[in-house]
Design goal:
With 100 residues, this protein is of the alpha+beta class. The chain has a domain of 56 residues. 21% of the residues lie in helices and 27% in strands. The longest helix is centred in the N-terminal third of the chain and has 21 residues.
Length: 100
Amino acid sequence: MTRKTLGWGLALVVLVIALGVWGFRPRTEAQQAPGQAGPAPKYTVVDTDASNLIVVDNVTNTVYYYTEDPGKEVGEELHLRGSVDLNDVGKPVLRPKAAK
């Protein structure tokens, strides 16, 4: 073999080893199950406008309803008016809980 061929052969072996090491390195990112977009949000806003807000707490399965005091201007404070436990869905009657 000539010196030039030996150099190219050695370069090719080094390249193959480097690619092998790079391809089999341990992964540092967390693996997710297929079909999951990430952790679920704690709250989901169902409906809102300037004077009402309906929110679902995904951890406790509860719907919360907030609204302004009657006669107030848009943009005033929203007050909790009531909630419904979504674990009762499917029962013949759902009873909302009034806010204290």
